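Structure (tokenized):
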């Protein structure tokens, strides 16, 4: 069993495996054979809630720069553009998610992975650095959520 760290989002415990790296855009990254596999963290999935639509604006073989728009996602709570977590080549998309993106909700660290890239992971955070990042943004996130609930 993989060790994990926990970040409390109010009463909800968001869990983060320690065998991965993390992007400030709330994606996890797991390194394999010269490639990185990316997916949404528990934090992102909790904020999105019930993902039901995923679309890619890139195809495998596309070179991207960090923060380039690569797709979009829709859920019960939000619509959002997706951005490349690092510079490199996007080499593979999880095609099964196009048919059923709800897998992201139930298996975010497994079958709910999003895409794979080749590139340096120098800008990716350790789990502890990511938790520090979450602490820094959590207050603003809570205000944003509460503001949305009052609209």
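Design, position by position:
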């Amino acid at each position: 069993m993989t060790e994990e760290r926990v970040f409390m989002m109010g009463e909800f415990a968001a869990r983060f495996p320690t065998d991965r790296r993390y992007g400030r855009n709330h994606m996890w990254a797991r390194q394999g054979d010269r490639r990185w596999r990316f997916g949404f963290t528990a934090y992102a999935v909790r904020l999105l809630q019930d993902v039901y639509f995923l679309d890619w604006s890139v195809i495998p073989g596309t070179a991207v720069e960090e923060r380039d728009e690569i797709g979009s996602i829709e859920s019960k709570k939000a619509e959002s553009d997706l951005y490349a977590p690092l510079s490199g080549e996007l080499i593979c998309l999880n095609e099964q998610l196009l048919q059923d993106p709800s897998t992201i909700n139930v298996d975010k660290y497994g079958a709910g992975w999003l895409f794979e890239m080749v590139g340096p992971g120098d800008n990716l955070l350790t789990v502890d650095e990511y938790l520090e990042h979450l602490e820094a943004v959590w207050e603003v996130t809570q205000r944003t959520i509460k503001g949305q609930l009052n609209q």
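Reviewer-requested clarification: The mean pLDDT is 91. The longest strand covers residues 69-75.
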